[in-house]
Write a structure and sequence with these properties.
The complex is a heterodimer of chains A (402) and B (358).
Chain A lengths: L1 E4 L2 E4 L12 E16 L5 E17 L3 E5 L6 H8 L7 E6 L2 E2 L5 H8 L2 E4 L13 H12 L7 H11 L16 H13 L5 E5 L7 H18 L2 E6 L2 H7 L2 E6 L2 E7 H6 L4 H9 L5 H6 L26 H5 L3 H9 L5 E4 L2 E3 L17 H10 L28
Parallel strand pairs in A: 5-10, 5-11, 8-9, 9-10
Antiparallel strand pairs in A: 1-2, 3-4, 3-6, 6-7, 11-12, 12-14, 13-14
Helix pairs in contact in A: 3-4, 3-5, 4-5, 5-6
Chain B lengths: L5 E3 L5 E3 L7 E14 L2 E14 L3 E5 L6 H8 L9 E8 L2 E2 L5 H10 L1 E4 L3 H4 L6 H12 L4 H14 L5 H4 L9 H13 L5 E5 L7 H18 L2 E6 L2 H7 L2 E6 L2 E7 H6 L4 H9 L64 H12 L4
Parallel strand pairs in B: 5-10, 5-11, 8-9, 9-10
Antiparallel strand pairs in B: 1-2, 3-4, 3-6, 6-7, 11-12
The chains are: A alpha/beta (402), B alpha/beta (358).
């Protein structure tokens, strides 16, 4: 149910919002990361910095997954690393459980590190090839000086088992494992100290689809088991939709749109989100034939000299085709602020509104039943209930013991 | 076979008579590419047979290590002079490319068959300007002056949508963005109007918005030039958009082949079911859990006995002989499937168990 009021569409609060009154675990305000550049020469001087992250705000609740999507170079990885203070933020605050932890360093920060961990993108580059996986997964204990109850080895083996690896492979080296298995090792390492937040930076993009699904399921299982919160950084919009409760769309260091997952995918209001969604090819040739894309022209502008006003205006299809000259001046001159257009749905755009084309025609529950009936399913119940709990089928098989 | 009458226009460019869409352009027969290694023979491509008609697009899908890239490299003759053992036949417009001389092959590369690689930064030479590299590709096949070649390069860069090609032509690859480099690669592949373009993961390294631009460009150019395309990818969305026919590979072998519609709406091989089922779908109601294919892709040195997919197949059974008998792939059928489950039973499994979950 949507009512349109002056460019802004409001929607009934989404019931799937995982936020509600759950404990806020991480609150990030006005986070900025600029990388300074120096010109060389006789008189070195500071040049315009690379504005990798330019003022982002978000709140992460316990047990929640925040997905951050965007094109490469939009600053999403830097955002993840800055949140963990693997790189020092230029400005902004990071609160962990209500306490400002920005700039905390040394021993105090090391304590906090046990609470916040990271899973990296490259399963080949993020594991030391000269260490056994036993010592890789056990490293967090050694660094923190923590002695788990049954001893480090027993704990590491139980972690390996938890992520679906054979605990007897404790003494093997990373090169003996496949990409998917290595990513499991990375997950086990992140899980070792029982953190409450894990930043996953493109954890599945280097993996084949069939293996990708295994790792995504693993991440979801351990999230439920340990009540973890994730910041899930990825460029694959389908994966992000699957795993996230809330999704932030990032462009040139800024959040363009933040909303609950279902709301964002069903009712994207920012032209950039719409273009991004419409660009994803669907594995469905009949649908693909009918789809119209919103094509963005050109490439991502340089974060050294981002466009004035709204950073997206240089590529914005709405700016190009729909806006009057007066409106355009506003896009060029004034930076749009994040504003709440619907409950839990923020958009940073002067003229947000529904897309002119169907970006992704998301099937409704009725469509799903219709499809199942048309395709000759035995009966509608076989297809799954609206909550979309898919009933067990043989292809789901038990999680592989690799 | 279509003849290529070659006349010259004023820039010295050969103009090819319009090719007839629908004729067999490429037919690969029992192609095998084996690499002897210390650990044993890697059967990267084993008994691959397929055909491609003029003007059509074939999508080859499969996981990494399924042999899809090696097969395409064999078509380009890129295994010559290496230790790879290549056998079978690759007939391009009637000529077996495995039998032709190196010189003949060199002439055909670029002119008849061109390739777009996945990573344009490593496929382009960092030391030469874009214009230099494209002009070389043109002048190898055409006896024209540098000025004429340069004009042709500018024309092509313009055609693939590179802004201000007149100044961009003198840039080096590192001065281009990822999407622009891929455009330049496509321009280089098309500069001699090849009849077959092999695109090996052409958009994997690109963002979705740029991917959409590049795919649209490839489709447009195909319409304009009437070329055939082999597109190799692991992204089922990309093949759904591009391909007329789809070949699914697993463990170096073709396991299923048909037109795109059939592969997407009534696939028959359990591996194809697994692939379609394991990907999250943006256009469908969200599922609580993804359904991955259990296990890992096989080693190409020690393929499982019987059907290579048996360790990961939920329907494999002793009665069918999945663990002992290697299934056939009758490439002459319109929809061949390499699976031992009898066709009727397979249809029933698909209808009752698989389709409702896809």
């Amino acid at each position: 149910m949507t009512t349109t009021t002056d460019h802004v569409t409001t929607t009934a609060p989404s019931t799937s919002g995982a936020s509600g009154d759950r404990e806020v675990i991480l609150r990030v305000g006005g986070l900025v990361k600029h990388f300074p550049r120096r010109t060389k020469g006789i008189l070195p001087r500071a040049d315009d910095p690379v504005k990798a992250v330019d003022g982002i705000d978000f709140v992460l609740h316990r047990g929640e997954t925040l997905g951050i999507v965007g094109e490469s170079g939009c600053g999403k990885s830097t955002a993840g690393r800055t949140v963990l203070q693997l790189i020092k933020p230029t400005a902004g605050t990071i609160e962990y459980l209500g306490k400002d932890v920005t700039g905390v360093h040394g021993r105090q920060w090391r304590r906090l590190r046990t609470e916040m961990q990271m899973v990296f993108q490259d399963p080949y580059g993020s594991l030391n090839p000269r260490q056994t996986i036993g010592s890789i997964v056990g490293a967090p204990f050694a660094i923190q000086g923590i002695k788990p109850p049954g001893g480090v080895k027993a704990e590491v083996q139980s972690l390996l088992e938890r992520v679906g690896l054979n605990p007897e492979h404790y003494n093997r080296y990373p090169h003996e494992f496949s990409g998917g298995q290595r990513q499991r090792i990375g997950v086990a390492r992140a899980l070792a100290l029982r953190p409450s937040v894990i930043v996953c930076d493109e954890p599945v993009s280097a993996l084949d689809v069939s293996i990708q699904a295994q790792v995504v399921n693993l991440l979801e299982d351990i999230q439920n088991e340990f009540n973890l919160s994730y910041v899930f950084i990825a460029h694959d919009l389908s994966v992000v939709r699957h795993i996230s409760d809330r999704v932030a769309v990032m462009y040139l260091g800024k959040f363009m749109e933040t909303a609950d997952r279902d709301e964002l995918y069903a009712n994207p209001l920012h032209p950039y989100t719409q273009a991004l969604l419409s660009a994803v090819p669907l594995p469905d040739p009949r649908k693909e034939g009918k789809r119209r894309r919103i094509l963005l022209t050109g490439d991502l502008p340089s974060p050294i000299n981002p466009p004035s006003g709204c950073v997206f205006h240089t590529r914005c299809p709405k700016f190009r085709e729909e806006l009057s000259d007066a409106d355009k001046q506003r896009c060029i001159g004034e930076v749009p602020q994040q504003r709440e257009v619907a409950p839990m749905h923020q958009v940073a755009c002067h003229f947000p509104g529904p897309a002119t084309v169907d970006v992704v025609k998301l099937e409704s529950v009725e469509d799903m039943f219709a499809r199942a009936a048309a395709e000759g399913a035995v009966n509608a119940e076989d297809v799954g209930v609206p909550a979309a709990s898919v009933h067990p089928d043989p292809t789901a098989a038990p999680e592989p013991q690799t | 076979m279509t003849t290529t009458s070659t006349t010259s226009d004023d820039t010295g460019r050969r103009v090819r008579a319009k090719v007839t869409v629908g004729e067999d352009l490429l037919s690969v027969e029992h192609l095998r590419v084996h690499f002897p290694t210390e650990d044993g023979i890697v059967k990267a491509v084993d008994d691959l047979t397929f055909e491609l008609k003029q003007g059509r697009t074939l999508g080859i899908v499969g996981e990494s290590g399924s042999g899809k890239s090696v097969a395409s490299q064999a078509i380009m003759g890129l295994h010559r002079g290496t230790r790879a053992k290549v056998s079978g036949a690759i007939r391009f417009a009637g000529v077996d490319l495995l039998q032709v001389s190196d010189e003949e092959l060199r002439r055909r590369r670029g002119e008849d068959i061109a390739m777009v690689f996945q990573d344009p930064l490593s496929a382009l030479h960092p030391y030469y300007t874009i214009g230099n590299q494209l002009a070389e590709a043109y002048r190898v096949h055409h006896k024209v002056s540098k000025t004429a070649a340069r004009a042709r390069v500018i024309e092509m860069l313009d055609r693939v949508g590179i802004p201000s090609p007149k100044s961009r032509i003198d840039n080096y690859p590192h001065e281009f963005s990822g999407g622009m480099r891929q455009r330049a690669m496509i321009a280089m592949a098309l500069i001699n109007d090849p009849r077959l373009i092999i695109a090996d993961e052409p958009t994997t390294a690109l963002d979705v918005t740029v991917q959409a631009q590049i795919l649209e460009l490839i489709v447009d150019l195909q319409k304009e030039f009437g070329s055939s395309i082999i597109i190799i990818t692991h992204d089922l969305g990309v093949v759904a958009e591009m391909a007329d026919d789809i070949l699914v590979m697993y463990g170096g072998k073709a396991v299923e082949r048909s037109d795109a519609d059939t592969i997407f709406y009534s696939p028959q091989h359990p591996y194809a079911w697994g692939l379609l089922g394991s990907m999250p779908r943006m256009d469908r109601i969200r599922m609580e859990r993804l359904r991955p294919i259990p296990g890992n892709p096989p080693s190409l040195i020690n393929l499982p006995k019987g059907c290579a997919f048996n360790p990961r197949c939920p329907y494999a059974s002793d009665e069918l002989g999945c663990f002992t008998v290697e299934p056939d792939f009758d490439a002459t059928l319109p929809h061949p499937v390499r699976c031992l489950i009898p066709e009727g039973e397979r249809m029933a499994i698909f209808r009752e168990k698989v389709q409702p979950t896809l």
